[in-house]
Amino acid sequence: MTTELVVDVKNQIKHALEEVRKKNIENVFFVACGGSSALMYPSKYAIDREAQKIDAHLYSSNEFIHRNHSKLGQNSLVILCSHSGTTPETVEAAKFARSKGALAVSLTNEPGSPLAQASDVVLKYEWGQEANAFTTNYSVIYQLVFGVLKEVEGNSKFEVIEKSLENLQSVYEKAASQSHDSAVEFGKQYKDEKVIYTMASGANYGVAYSFAICILMEMQWIHSHAIHAGEYFHGPFEIIDEETPFIILLGLDETRFLEERALEFSKKYGKKLVVLDAKDFDFSGIEEEARGYIAPLVLNFVLRKYADNLAEQRNHPLSKRRYMWKVEY
Amino acid sequence: MTTELVVDVKNQIKHALEEVRKKNIENVFFVACGGSSALMYPSKYAIDREAQKIDAHLYSSNEFIHRNHSKLGQNSLVILCSHSGTTPETVEAAKFARSKGALAVSLTNEPGSPLAQASDVVLKYEWGQEANAFTTNYSVIYQLVFGVLKEVEGNSKFEVIEKSLENLQSVYEKAASQSHDSAVEFGKQYKDEKVIYTMASGANYGVAYSFAICILMEMQWIHSHAIHAGEYFHGPFEIIDEETPFIILLGLDETRFLEERALEFSKKYGKKLVVLDAKDFDFSGIEEEARGYIAPLVLNFVLRKYADNLAEQRNHPLSKRRYMWKVEY
């Protein structure tokens, strides 16, 4: 089953790249909302660092439509994502992109959804405990992005990334197992907190953002804010004291110095620090030059275990909502 | 005195544009930290909407250096800002930009500062209660940016923006006077709050960000987070209830719909709402087509009065710090 799905993802990417090849792509817009937007941050980081020609932009779906970026046009690739494929702003954004002549490629778990119907190309990703990492959203978007970099401007990292993603599942499993006790401890220690900050930089910032707005604010009703580790010293750090909890992420990319500096300071004046350092995990099977890009995926996977434990300790299931899908908005 | 300074700013911009003209500018990087970064958000919004050729990117200074964007080069204009001109990351960023062949233009209040020395061109701006709006940071960067759009690709809005900025001071004064009672009331009503969120979109998001990280977190040690009004419905809105304060900004740009939608929802489920709507202010003297761009400047000016009153009511001066400039970091 998994092998079939792996082959299927590869075929889907191949098809998407055939469509990309027909265009003269000059820029990529990453367009989604909330968690689906957050999973695109590492891809923007990758294009920023790797691309010789392509420019990358990232906007929440409605901001994308109303801002109406002047460079959006027939040489644009717009990459969208909605898990259910029903997020109205993102469906509208796909239509808007196509009305400008752009190529709209959408990631979704529901290939029959409105988003899928509104897009030129659909990439179905897998989801849940049983899914192999290679077939999930973070992996599929990386395959697409590095594939585009290869097709459009001959970037050489596609194979390295693809091979690393094929080996990602075992990294996930080892990291989760290694973090089991820390995740349980996190749930117990932080269950009564009213505010929990998250912090990261570079490729990892989206993971901090996702944990802050989706897990803490949305699913746990805990106040939060994803602080950029570089911005920390220019305002936010005045908030830290021995009572204020911070989840600090350390990745393996070129901005790691920013995260290390933020951690070092936080250790001096804070006491409630939850540190997830990608260096502590076993990245066997991930090529050396891909590790900076893969680290946020691993951190995100491990953090979900932290979320599970927090929810359990608080008797507040991650599925509990008061407004989302329940009231008009 | 003011007239002399107005002429001086115009001469400085003229000189900067002469340097721009010598290059073949393809992209602009906005590089600064904290509040100095926040004041660049409207300029990125302007380029995103207006530019036919130029791409705009915005990064915190250390992220800019370590991310090492592949498009940074001799066809890049890097616009930096530091009030004192001593922010180490921003000084380093100027050096880094020039090492890549880019043109580094810096805004600062201190033309003899390290940042000024590390840059190709220095733009001194005025500051404080006595300064005319035309000579302050938000105005100077707009003059530069619209000047660049004019020089590089013939955009026609420079004169409209310049004229509007010349009339900005009286808009500021009327808006502040009109908001006096609301600002006093804000200080009284919210002085005991532990968390205050801010929210906006488009050109105004940077103002929300600045108020969250510089005023609330840095200067008042109040928990905060600037929520993007479009992202609100994809996570953050689950946090709102009758006890949770939100400052909601409404500007005059193309994304106003996002802010209106966020406000409408918040009114249903929240009670502690502080609404600043640019529509309530008198924009006489600001050209119609410039109003969307000018609104964040007015909102920012008025919000400073809110900050003053909050600080006074809390007996916590805006100048009070525990770490910044006091300890090693």
CATH class category label of the largest domain in chain A = Alpha Beta
Low-confidence segments of chain A, given as residue ranges, are none
Major sheet description of chain A = 5 strands, parallel
Oligomeric form of this entry?
homodimer
Rg from alpha-carbon coordinates of chain A: 19 Å
Structural class of chain A: alpha/beta
Proportion of residues in helical segments of chain A? 40-55%
Distance between the termini of chain A: 39 Å
The assigned CATH architecture of the largest domain in chain A is: 3-Layer(aba) Sandwich
In terms of DSSP E residues, the strand content of chain A is 5-15%
Largest interface: A-B, 65 and 64 residues
Largest beta sheet: strand ordering of chain A: 2-1-3-4-5
Mean residue pLDDT of chain A:
97
Q: With helices defined by DSSP (H or I, 4 residues minimum), what is the helix count of chain A?
A: 12
Sketch the topology of chain A as an H/E string, one letter per element. Answer: HEHHEHEHEHEHHHEHEEHEH
How many domain modules of chain A? 2
CATH fold-type name of the largest domain in chain A:
Rossmann fold
CATH superfamily of the largest domain in chain A: Glucose-6-phosphate isomerase like protein, domain 1
Inertia-based shape of chain A: globular
Extended strand count of chain A: 9
GO molecular function (chains A, B): carbohydrate derivative binding; glutamine-fructose-6-phosphate transaminase (isomerizing) activity; hydrolase activity
Enzyme class (chains A, B): hydrolase
Keywords (chains A, B): Carbohydrate metabolism, Hydrolase
Domain SIS (chains A, B): 16-154
